[in-house]
Amino acid sequence: MGLLMTTPLRIIFAGTPDFAASSLAALISSEHQIVAVYTQPDRPAGRGRKLTASPVKALAIKHDIPVYQPQNFKEEPEQAALRALNADLMVVVAYGLLLPAAILDAPKQGCINVHASLLPRWRGAAPIHRSLLAGDSETGITIMQMDEGLDTGDMLYKSTCPILPEDTSGALHDRLAEQGAEALLDTLRLITDKQLSPVKQNNADACYAHKLTKQEGLIDWAETAEVIDRQIRGLSPWPVAFTTRGDDTLRIISASPEATTTTAAPGIIIETTKEKIIIACGNGTTLSIDRLQLPGGKPLSSRDVLNARKELFSTGTHLGI
User: Which part of the chain is the Formyl transferase C-terminal domain (predicted)?
Assistant: First the structure.
């Protein structure tokens, strides 16, 4: 068994964002051989819309790993190029391209995926955000053997991660990126030791994590403070929850449910203290806005906003209409 443990695998890595770069970094420092990295084509980014390499590409270049950036794998030359790499395994993490059967079957042991949910819950594009928005108490990482379905393959490894009351999608993303990298290395040990026990997913328990849209950020003050708090945290740092005050859009960066109740209509500002703007929500619940962003401004604490523009948030002002 000791001999098997040290058998390095020839691995192709496919991924694009920061989340994937964490797993690539773990592979780079492991005993395994990364023969190539696949990542999405460079995209325009920033104010200058300059073509920018993905975090995964930047890390691969730093470590002199060959990088491939096909638009897709529909053409035979792209498939042949990947087959020619003669890989034992392909590791896919938030790559963003659909892989046809010809690619899934190319490496000797197929393709495995690092997915940021406890499958079969939250298959699809935005599992971290959806777990928060739904009020799940925990999420985690599932490593699965990929098939032609969307996150439907057999589960090879799972690790759980509690969702904390103050978690934003950003904070949860960072913890799961680290956890995903650790789970990947554990799974590779099981593969080299031939100790994998694949488990089929129960499709009846599956739910789909749709991509986020900016419009999902619009706060409905008739929801309870707890639901709105989850919306604010679940959409932080992107696309950010927002409300309106007349024609202006106010971005709500962070908030917290208050213990007090009210009979005021949802959306009414019922109190401002030195540091808080307290708003009536559904079912008589109340929410304190802690950080927000005025049009054309930067995110500020409620204290700073009230010091500068208290007249915008006088008691009785109705948000969201």
Answer: 211-308
Give backbone dihedrals phi and psi of 174, rounded to 5 degrees, phi first: -65, -40
Residue 318 lies in a domain: no
Binding residue per annotation — 117? yes
User: For the segment 8-36, what is each residue's pLDDT rounded down to a tens digit?
Assistant: 999 999 999 999 999 999 999 999 999 99
Residue 191 structure tokens: 């593969």
The number of folded domains in the chain is: 2
Instruction: Read off the pLDDT of residues 70-87 as tens digits, 9 standing for 90 and up.
Output: 999 999 999 999 999 999
Residues 264 and 256: beta-carbon distance below 8 Å: no
- 175 within some domain: yes
Does this model's pTM top 0.85? My answer is yes
Residue 119 among known ligand-binding residues: yes
Closest to 145 measured CA to CA, from 191, 189, 181: 191
Cα gap 18→39, rounded to integer Å:
12
| Domain extent at residue 81 | 2-209
Is residue 185 annotated as involved in ligand binding?
Answer: no
